[in-house]
Design a protein that fits this description.
homodimer; TIM Barrel; six-stranded parallel sheet; about 15% strand
């Protein structure tokens, strides 16, 4: 495990994931409380809401109110996402830290199903968005390659295809004089295994040894944490995850099992491996328990149920 | 990942784990049906029941009947466990493949809490059992070191302590002219991380390079599959696991999260990494779904909810 990073950064997506998928209704007050609690754990990046059509995602109808109510700590980025210009127009009027992103799926068929646009049309839309970000002074920090490990429509995805997507995104960033902070590789539909993480990350690394990569992993088939371990072993130091495993619901069949990897489980594993996270695990576990209280049912996170080891190590246990 | 085994063997513990912990009642017929279904997947070892005091474990009251009713395939070991001589007396009268085992905990305090015997007393009891196994012609196949990665009473466990336990177990086996098939290293209370798996396995390997090791992992804190990955990377080719993650109950707080790693998730990961298991994953997923049907609630396994990738790869998906 010689390539292990000394420290990792975690991008928390639990609030947005949870408020979006939970049958709810979740009160604005609870949403704010959860975001504020997460920001007290040492997390530097909390994705609070998405600015989407409330008719399609009723749980996000109060996104602007949530964004305006959160009492912000100065050392934390409270972020939100938008899927189109209309969403960005709403987002930038809130006090959230809104950044633009660029994205591409390895799978043309997935793109069409997901956004009604093929990859070429997506590129046109991306340029429209990049013009908007430039005009509004919205920084663009990251790019994401979706379905990087496999696709339910197109099946296996060759690592070279992922590399080509990264190349196109980097070209696009160059075109707009954007210096990306990182490129996120996403297991959008839960196909990744430790072997494919090694192959894909290895292929990208070979071409761009200094490019900072992030992993966006789902635990659809039980390999989420093992995939994260392989990422760590490949030196990946940036992960997206969800407190309590929010976003998946264990009671809803396929959809339910498809949540992001769980933040506090990832923090536990990293800390046990001597990797710094800057996060107070016990405080984060309390957030996960708060999440269960708010949504009213059990969530997939494990360490919140098993408990941290700190009390045993402190010796007050016998 | 150069030390990956070409093939792994999986010791299925789901029926025994599940019938033991589930609030039930589970009918004898369902227990038999589940064991028989597991034996059709390619698993060669299915632990069906434990012969324990029915007043303490009501779910095992029909252990003898289950054992007698299962229609056995000739290529599968249908096994059962016992904790004391009284249990073994019942076990050997059934058609199950009963083997003896020897065991030791790294933690004297854990031993006392678990069995009312300290490690020295445990050794005396083990000799009593070994005399019994010898007299009855019961083969002894494996030894197990419990709490090998940490203990809720004694905290951190040094890898050297685990090595010393292995040494004592090997000495004990020698004393009785037993050639152990494998030594199982157990994360009894869910403390293991990939780092501690690497340390402990490495320490044992250093002393006994040719000793066959097995891992018995729990997913108490979300690292179960990552720990298994580290085991694979260390060349471990023998794992205990539970179909559907039976043995943990996601609705019961600490106790609930403490189940074994999930067999079909492990099989999925291994197969995706090119490691042979000899198991039909889709058939095993059907067993996991049968387990949920039998216990009447959701179980922690992931790939049974996410589904295997075979249908996507076959192309019949659009």
């Amino acid at each position: 495990m010689t390539d292990l990073p000394k420290r990792i950064e975690i991008h928390e997506e639990g609030p947005r994931e949870g408020f979006q998928i939970e049958a709810g209704p979740i009160s604005t007050e609870d949403k704010v409380r959860f975001c504020e609690a997460l920001a007290e754990t040492g997390l530097h990046d909390v994705q609070c809401v998405s600015f989407v059509d409330a008719r399609r995602v009723p749980g996000m109808a109060d996104a602007v109110e949530v964004a305006q109510t959160i009492r912000q700590r100065p050392d934390v980025h409270y972020t939100g996402i938008a899927l189109n210009l209309r969403g960005y127009e709403r987002a930038v009027q809130t006090p959230l830290h809104i950044t633009g992103g660029i994205q591409m799926s390895t799978s043309n068929t997935f793109s069409i199903h997901n956004t009604n646009k093929n990859n070429e049309e997506t590129l046109v839309e991306q340029r429209r968005q990049l013009d908007f970000f430039k005009a509004r002074g919205i920084p663009v920090e990251s790019a994401i390659v979706m379905t990087a490990f496999g696709c339910n429509f197109e099946g296996e995805i060759a690592p070279d295809t992922v590399r080509d997507c990264v190349a196109r995104l980097l070209d696009l960033a160059d075109e707009y004089d954007i210096r990306l902070d990182r490129v996120r590789i996403a297991d959008t539909v839960g196909w990744a295994s430790p072997a494919s993480v090694q192959r894909v990350v290895g292929t990208i690394r070979e071409k761009w040894p200094d490019l900072k990569l992030g992993l966006h992993l789902h635990d659809t088939r039980g390999t989420g944490m093992a995939n994260a371990l392989m990422g760590l072993q490949m030196g990946i130091a940036s992960f997206d995850s969800s407190c309590a495993g929010l976003g998946g619901c264990p009671f809803a069949g396929h959809k339910g099992a498809a949540g992001n990897i769980c933040t506090e489980d990832l923090v536990f594993m990293a800390q046990e491996m001597g990797i710094e996270t800057g996060i107070d695990l016990d405080a984060l576990i309390e957030c996960a328990r708060l999440a269960e209280e708010i949504v009213g049912h059990s969530l997939p996170g494990k360490v919140m149920h098993g408990g941290s080891l700190s009390k045993y190590r402190a010796g007050g246990h016998t």
